[in-house]
Amino acid sequence: MHLAHAREQYVRWLLVTRDLSPHTIRAYDGDLAAFERCVGGLRRVETIDRDVLVGFIEDQRATGLSSTSLRRRACGLRGFCAWLLARGLLATDPWTGVTVAVGRSRKLPRLVATSDLDRLLRSLREVAAVDEAGLLIRPHDATTLLAVALMLATGMRVNEVVGLQCTDIDLPGRTLRIVGKGRRERQVFLTNDWMQTLVRDYLRTRTALGVTHAPLLFNRRLEPLSPAAMRGRLAVAAREAGLRARVTPHMLRHTAATQLIEAGVDIRYIQRLLGHASLSTTEIYTHVSDRALRDVVSAADVLGRSLQPR
């Protein structure tokens, strides 16, 4: 079987048998597309051996691919080869004895400055006013406010916040059910009274407008809000708040996690809140809290105490 044909079959198999998000499927297909471009779509899959794999990894490394992307390329290819092996299209596993030695990427996440965050929230909170019937006066702008507030309060990804269903919300219990990467479910909490009120007002307004679809958030056409639209809304909100720096949904997630670290929250709880499969993914936030580290060291002032006259 040619590689191009095998790739098509593998992606179809992933779609049918694996409970993966469309984004994850596209990522796997993109990795295999890169492999196909490198070795040729007409290559017979039975000729894929250790040398072919090592050559591909070296080729990708030479293009300046990041450590994270290189590691994902290798992971995607391992899954593909395992599928070929299970179907008898490969006699042996070509990955046996192959180790992809790449440094762990430590690119620090970008955060929203505290002053910028305050200005953004002050600007957005103006749209939370309700009329005499308790309905939001500016529901479409309130959609942006609610999404931003949810991402900051819970560390949700943009795909998770736009994918939130009305049935995922338990107002009396102050909880939200989130379906994250790999279809993994987790529970987060609405502990803030203002947030609780905003969600309640939004749900009431949503019903009054005749919105009937399952996703919580809606756009100006009363249709489900998309991730791309949410990114655009956030960019507009940042400009209207007078911010010069670019603000993205993922920066809100990073900011939420970092603030929790600085508040002294155990990293294992933050891992659960963010939906990270591995604690090592969450640990990067311990490297971005330089301000908190400086404050702690300054307060301790070990040298100053040692130099004090006795």
Automatic annotation (TrEMBL):
Keywords: DNA integration, DNA recombination, DNA-binding. One of its GO terms (biological process) is DNA recombination. Residues 107-298 form the Tyr recombinase domain. GO terms for molecular function: DNA binding. This is Tyrosine-type recombinase/integrase. InterPro entries: CB, DNA_brk_join_enz, Integrase-like_cat_sf, Integrase_catalytic, Integrase_recombinase_N, Integrase_SAM-like_N, Tyrosine_recombinase_XerCD. It comes from Solirubrobacter phytolaccae. SUPFAM superfamilies: DNA breaking-rejoining enzymes. Residues 1-85 form the Core-binding (CB) domain. It comes from the Bacteria. The keyword DNA-binding applies. The keyword Protein biosynthesis does not apply.
